[in-house]
């Protein structure tokens, strides 16, 4: 009896079962975030993450150098090839914009059905349907009409200038990969769900959620129904464990003349979800993973990983396109009157000199190194490498003396000698410079906070951390409530600073204040007056900046546009609506022998962009790309 | 309890008539070697925590980016820039520049942080342990003595509360109190400022762990209230309050003391668990729990293990000691051999 | 007896009702709603959109009204959809989470029981031996070490350093069928079960030991001894049977701890169980999932408490319920 037990134990301990890796020509990738659903509908209340790029490809995609390449399309529309036309009237005013697209003849869905213009039309119909909780309609809403010429050729006509025409459904970022959905799969589901929802308005949202967004082609319950256009075919999804995909033999971008025989490349991909970061690290060090994605290891020290991975895996560090920033409550500005925030007003946060004093009080170089190894100090709202990036900005070096001088200029003085500056407000109250700092308890932010506390106390500012779980901090009541003093001082988060075509900040519009085309005042600034809608959460407004913002949005000439964006950065850099701390980096690991698993620039968005090229050297895969 | 203890106790019983109950208890407790050891260690930890600012030459929050992730060292670096900020050049043998437990991810002295972290962790433990026991005990005694409907309703409520998984409730409550939405939380944060998260944790742990004491004390009182001395007190017209406070509660003291002791350890463990999930004590306040939760990221860094090792050892040691003491107290206060009014 | 069972089963219903009210109320009071994620960082999102979506999701009504709707449908077995996963909340929990939880928690209880009883008995029989002290000491460690810390150390030791066991998860993807899959599953379950069962193992051993000691000193055991029965028979036929009784109640009481304490173990070992599901869904404002999981665990706890009482009654003829 005892012997059997011992033998069993030995079998269990020693019988190490290996799956994946070069032996079986497979690859296991570790990731911390799992998609909620696999539906190809933008922003439908779920996160989709990298795996979507395994199963889908859009009309266009970006390579590691940030070049836009045709995917399902035969070529990228441009003025040069005549596929992009701006129609103007006699006075030179914009009338409409036309974009011609041709879908490749050899583009098929993973179940063998050809991809056609009907799929494009259907995707747009879903996207614009009022009952579908798609949130990003900015570019699909300005489509005037779609002229269908045949199965493969169509022209999209926009009534307003659209710089983001490279995706017909107006998708940006990762969503670009699934910008066309299979009509033959989704249409019956869509019609049925809509009919039921319309018949039962009280439960419409739930019906759409359960019958449409979570239907079989999205949930993976029936793997044959998950049909995509990408290099891998969906095979299996064990929720909260892994997703498995199998190589498609008919994928049109795989050219044997370039790559050699398909057998040389990985047959199956498994993306393993390990939510807890230290456990992901353990799995990596235990040799259970062939690669890790670009999100899971954020904030880790690449040098430590490198020394750990010697001979086993290599480490790629790439820009993330995100800038970690300290946003200031500007609702103390006189323009807001009583509607603003009293604490912010007392602290003079709306005065650019306050922000300038604070940026100079922080030694951002060592801070970035300590809290986010590999990150680069930023002075702009645009990331390096973006076409509009302005390299000639004031670098705001660490200068506590200059900071103290500015604060003194603003009337701050430590009269009671307690180490914290104070001043007397115009209405005769004595206030101390106690600056509330709100953020999430993510470890690198807590570390930032601890360092900031120290730097600021050196110039007489007492930083008072108030942290909230992400679900609270990013709740609209909170982040949009600056004018109601939900965060009266600083709020720290990261926002995207570049996506290649234009800076993302322009897109997500966190800096502009007033749209001159509308009668409303300060459209983008959340206040009680507009029920706290809008994305300019800090309340910073600069008329010249707003003018440039809207000029850039309708400027088709790339050089001209870059010029305007550089101008905007000059204003930004002087006024500092937020203090940029650093550009975050992303870290991925690749087992030695695995080739073409690279991310490159922030524009690429995902290391999964070229999954068809992944392979093991041992099996004869050709190395075409390597991390810069 | 062990055979030896029993013999001792019998011996104690014989001479007990001339001794006070507490004296007797102390004699029994003293004989429980592990409990004595535990008590001593706890005393040392409490002293260390209370005296932290005078024991350590460092401030717990002051960083030193030139000395991140140092192994424990007793050598003072010759380069003055590496010393970092000290509040004093030395405390006895502990010179500025020495790091007996090493330094953490921001170059702060781990021993100093452990001492300061002990303040918060022990405070949470004592406060939550005491509060939940008193709350539960008082409610239990009152309800059991009043009997009837009140007893039935409360017991039902406690049964219900015990059937809800505790951890999710902890999460929801912490989230609730950590936000500004609820007026109670707003008031709390105005009063407490930076220390808010500590009080939130104490309140939440208390709110979800008084039921143990409630059940114990209720059961005890239910059996006591039928006893002759309570009957007698009632007969001579003692008020309800007097009976509860003068006769019933003192006779449940042994249960409450043991329960409180064990709850202190339990509360420290709960705090560390909540901190592990990011919902516990919020930095810059430092507790063993949040030191530990942060340390797991650096486990695989060179010398990173020390960041995780020491707070873990201290949690373990403290809880262990409270268990020892609780065990010793249980044996010493065992009602079967103790005095009754 | 039958009347007693019926009464106890019927009592479960109002208790469940109270639990649902408490939990729903607390969840509804928590700030943040499902719209937040749609709204944040989305320039096209207007106040009109917000109002439309709030209505669409029924969030414009006060929480007790929503609770009433929820209850009305819950009693019919409809717990609403999961906003995140786009499938019925109950399906998500029962299909993807429950099996894992049952494996982890069930095995942990089983292992704790299988280790605690012999260890406790042994400790009691060989009182004051070196092994007795060793077992006692290990028990103290078991109740004093933070579960998640134990888990992290186990991973560090067995997965990263020795490389004999996997660092987490339920199984190795891609291994399907037969002996290989079974072995793979066993390998994955060893570390989490060790971490999760440590506490119960320790406290039950202690309990078993003192219970056994007490029984061994009782009159009937002495009588049995006086009658000249073999020591073996006395220990296993008479003493053990009675000493094991109180443990049954303890198991009932341990269920909530094992199920809800599992969130820490699940996090460390990347084990997709119910504890983590509840945690994640609360964080992501996906309340239907949290509700169905919490209600189910509560039901499980109530059921096990009842079972423990019944088992006690069956095992101990002195107890009668009328």
Task: Explain the overall architecture.
The complex is a heterotrimer of chains A (628), B (341) and C (322). Chain A is built from 19 helices and 21 strands. Chain A is an alpha+beta fold. Chain A has two domains: 3-11 and 19-57 and 224-320 and 586-619, Periplasmic binding protein-like II (D-Maltodextrin-Binding Protein, domain 2); 321-583, Roll (Dipeptide-binding Protein, domain 3), CATH 3.10.105.10. Chain A is globular and about 75 Å long. Chain B has a single domain (36-339), classed as MetI-like (MetI-like fold, Orthogonal Bundle). Chain B has helices at residues 3-15, 21-31, 33-50, 52-55, 110-146, 148-163, 166-178, 183-192, 196-224, 228-235, 240-276, 288-295, 304-333, and strands at residues 90-91, 94-95. In chain B, helix 3 (33-50) crosses helix 13 and helix 7 packs across helix 9 (196-224). Chain B is elongated, with a radius of gyration of 24 Å. Chain B starts with a helix and ends in an 8-residue tail after the last helix. By secondary structure, chain C is mostly helical. Chain C has two domains: 2-88, no CATH class; 96-315, Orthogonal Bundle (MetI-like fold), CATH 1.10.3720.10. In chain C, 76% of the residues lie in helices and 0% in strands. Chain C has 13 helices and no strands. Chain C has helices at 2-29, 35-39, 47-56, 63-74, 89-125, 130-144, 147-161, 178-216, 219-226, 231-243, 245-268, 274-283, 287-315. Chain C is globular. Chain C starts with a helix and ends in a 7-residue tail after the last helix. Chains A and B meet through helix 8, helix 9, helix 12, helix 14 and strand 17 of A and loops of B.
């Amino acid at each position: 009896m005892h012997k059997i037990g011992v033998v069993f134990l030995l079998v269990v301990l020693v019988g190490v079962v290996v799956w994946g890796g070069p032996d079986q020509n497979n690859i296991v990738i570790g990731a911390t975030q799992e998609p909620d659903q696999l539906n190809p509908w933008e922003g439908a209340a779920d996160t989709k993450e990298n795996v979507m790029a395994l199963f889908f490809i859009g009309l266009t995609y970006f390579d590691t150098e940030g070049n836009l390449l045709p995917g399902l399309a035969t070529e990228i529309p441009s003025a040069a090839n005549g596929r992009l036309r701006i129609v103007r009237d006699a006075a030179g005013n914009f009338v409409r914009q036309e974009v011609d697209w041709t879908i490749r003849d050899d583009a098929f869905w993973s179940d063998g059905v050809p991809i056609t213009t009907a799929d494009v039309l259907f995707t747009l119909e879903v996207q614009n349907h009022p009952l579908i909780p798609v949130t990003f309609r900015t570019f699909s809403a300005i489509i005037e009409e779609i002229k269908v010429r045949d199965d493969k050729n169509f022209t999209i006509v926009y009534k307003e200038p659209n710089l983001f025409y490279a995706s017909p459904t107006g998708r940006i970022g990762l969503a670009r990969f699934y910008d066309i959905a299979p009509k033959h799969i989704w249409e019956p589901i869509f019609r049925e769900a809509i009919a039921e929802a319309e018949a039962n308005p009280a439960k419409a949202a739930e019906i759409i959620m359960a019958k449409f967004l979570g239907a079989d082609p999205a949930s993976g319950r029936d793997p044959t129904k998950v049909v995509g256009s990408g290099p891998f075919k969906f095979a299996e999804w064990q929720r909260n464990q892994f997703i498995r995909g199998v190589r498609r033999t008919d994928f049109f971008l795989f050219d044997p003349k370039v790559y050699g025989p398909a057998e040389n490349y990985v047959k199956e991909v498994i993306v393993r979800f390990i939510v807890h970061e230290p456990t992901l690290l353990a799995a990596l060090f235990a040799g259970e993973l062939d690669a890790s994605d670009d999100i899971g290891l954020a904030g880790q020290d690449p040098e430590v990983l490198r020394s750990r991975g010697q001979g086993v895996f290599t480490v790629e560090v790439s820009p993330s396109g995100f800038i970690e920033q300290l946003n200031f409550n500007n609702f103390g500005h006189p323009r807001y009157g009583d509607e603003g925030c009293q604490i912010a007003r007392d602290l003079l946060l709306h005065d650019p000199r306050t922000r300038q004093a604070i940026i100079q009080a922080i030694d951002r170089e060592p801070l970035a190194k300590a809290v986010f190894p590999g990150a680069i100090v930023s002075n702009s709202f645009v990331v390096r490498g973006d076409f509009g990036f302005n390299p000639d900005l004031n670098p705001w070096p660490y200068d506590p003396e200059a900071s103290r001088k500015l604060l003194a200029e603003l009337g701050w003085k430590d009269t009671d000698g307690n180490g914290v500056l104070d001043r007397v407000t115009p209405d005769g109250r004595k206030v101390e410079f106690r600056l509330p700092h709100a953020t999430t308890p993510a470890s690198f932010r807590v570390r930032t906070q601890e360092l900031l506390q120290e730097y600021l106390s050196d110039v007489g500012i007492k930083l008072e951390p108030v942290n909230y779980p992400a679900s609270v901090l990013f709740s609209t009541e909170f982040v949009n409530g600056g004018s109601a003093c939900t965060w009266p001082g600083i709020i720290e988060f990261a926002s995207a600073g570049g996506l290649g075509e234009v800076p993302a900040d322009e897109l997500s519009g966190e800096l502009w204040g007033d749209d001159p085309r509308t009668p409303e005042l300060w459209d983008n600034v959340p206040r009680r007056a507009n029920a706290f809608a809008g994305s300019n959460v800090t309340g910073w407004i600069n008329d010249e900046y707003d003018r440039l913002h809207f000029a850039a949005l309708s400027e088709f000439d790339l050089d001209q546009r870059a010029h305007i964006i550089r101008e905007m950065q000059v204003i930004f850099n002087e006024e500092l609506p937020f203090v940029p701390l650093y550009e975050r980096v992303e870290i991925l690991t690749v087992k030695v022998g695995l080739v073409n698993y690279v991310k490159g620039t922030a524009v690429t968005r995902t290391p999964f962009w070229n999954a068809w090229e992944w392979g093991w050297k041992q099996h004869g895969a050709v190395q075409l790309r390597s991390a810069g | 309890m062990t055979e030896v203890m029993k013999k001792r106790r019998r011996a104690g019983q014989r001479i007990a008539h001339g001794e006070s109950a507490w004296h007797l208890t102390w004699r029994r407790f003293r004989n429980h070697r592990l409990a004595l050891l535990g008590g001593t260690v706890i005393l040392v930890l409490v002293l260390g925590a209370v005296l932290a600012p005078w024991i350590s030459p460092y401030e717990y929050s002051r960083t030193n980016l030139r000395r991140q992730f140092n192994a424990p060292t007793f050598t003072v670096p010759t380069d003055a820039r590496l010393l970092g900020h000290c509040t004093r050049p030395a405390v006895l043998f502990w010179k500025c520049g020495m790091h007996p437990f090493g330094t953490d991810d921001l170059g702060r002295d781990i021993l100093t942080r452990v001492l300061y972290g002990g303040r918060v962790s022990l405070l949470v433990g004592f406060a939550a342990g005491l509060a939940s026991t008193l709350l539960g005990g008082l409610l239990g005694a009152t309800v059991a003595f009043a009997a009837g409907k009140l007893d039935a309703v409360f017991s039902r409520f406690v049964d219900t509360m015990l059937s809800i998984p505790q951890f999710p409730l902890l999460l929801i409550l912490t989230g609730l109190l950590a936000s500004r939405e609820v007026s109670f939380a707003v008031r709390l944060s105005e009063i407490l400022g930076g220390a808010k998260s500590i009080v939130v944790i104490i309140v939440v742990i208390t709110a979800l762990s008084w039921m143990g004491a409630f059940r114990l004390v209720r059961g005890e009182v239910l059996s006591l209230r039928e006893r002759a001395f309570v009957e007698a007190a009632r007969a001579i017209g003692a008020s309800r309050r007097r009976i509860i406070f003068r006769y019933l509660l003192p006779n449940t003291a042994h249960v409450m003391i043991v329960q409180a002791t064990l709850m202190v350890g339990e509360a420290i463990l709960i705090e560390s668990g909540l901190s592990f999930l990011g919902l516990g004590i919020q930095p810059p306040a430092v507790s063993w729990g949040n030191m530990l939760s942060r340390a797991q990221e650096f486990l695989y860094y060179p010398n990173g293990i020390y960041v995780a090792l020491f707070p873990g050892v201290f949690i373990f040691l403290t809880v262990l000691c409270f268990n020892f003491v609780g065990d010793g107290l249980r044996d010493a206060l065992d009602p079967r051999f103790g005095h009754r009014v | 007896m039958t009347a007693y069972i019926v009464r106890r089963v019927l009592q479960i219903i109002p208790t469940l009702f109270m639990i649902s009210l408490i939990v729903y109320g607390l969840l509804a009071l928590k700030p943040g709603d499902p719209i937040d994620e749609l709204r944040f960082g989305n320039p096209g999102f207007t106040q009109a959109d917000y109002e439309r979506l709030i209505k669409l999701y029924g969030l414009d009504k006060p929480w007790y009204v929503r609770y009433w709707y929820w209850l009305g449908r819950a009693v019919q077995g409809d717990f609403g959809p999961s906003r995140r996963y786009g499938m019925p909340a109950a399906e998500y929990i029962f299909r993807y989470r429950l099996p894992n939880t049952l494996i982890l928690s069930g095995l942990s209880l089983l292992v704790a029981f299988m280790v605690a009883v012999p260890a406790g008995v042994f400790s009691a029989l060989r009182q004051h031996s070196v092994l007795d002290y060793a077992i006692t000491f290990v028990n103290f460690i078991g109740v004093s070490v933070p579960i998640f810390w134990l888990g992290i150390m186990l991973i560090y030791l067995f997965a990263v350093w020795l490389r004999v066991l996997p660092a987490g998860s339920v199984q190795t993807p891609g291994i399907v069928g037969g002996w290989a899959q079974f072995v793979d599953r066993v390998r994955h379950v060893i570390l989490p079960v060790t971490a999760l069962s440590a506490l119960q193992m320790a406290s039950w051993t202690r309990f078993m030991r003192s219970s056994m000691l007490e029984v061994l000193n009782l009159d009937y055991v002495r009588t049995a001894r006086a009658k000249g029965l073999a020591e073996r028979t006395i220990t296993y036929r008479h003493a053990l049977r009675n000493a094991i009784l109180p443990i049954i109640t303890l198991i009932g009481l341990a269920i909530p701890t094992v199920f809800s304490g599992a969130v820490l173990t699940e996090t460390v070992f990347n084990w997709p169980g119910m504890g983590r599901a509840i945690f994640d869904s609360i964080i992501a404002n996906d309340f239907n999932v949290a509700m169905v999981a919490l209600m189910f665990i509560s039901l499980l706890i109530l059921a096990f408490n009842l079972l423990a009482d019944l088992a006690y009654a069956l095992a101990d003829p002195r107890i009668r319920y009328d």
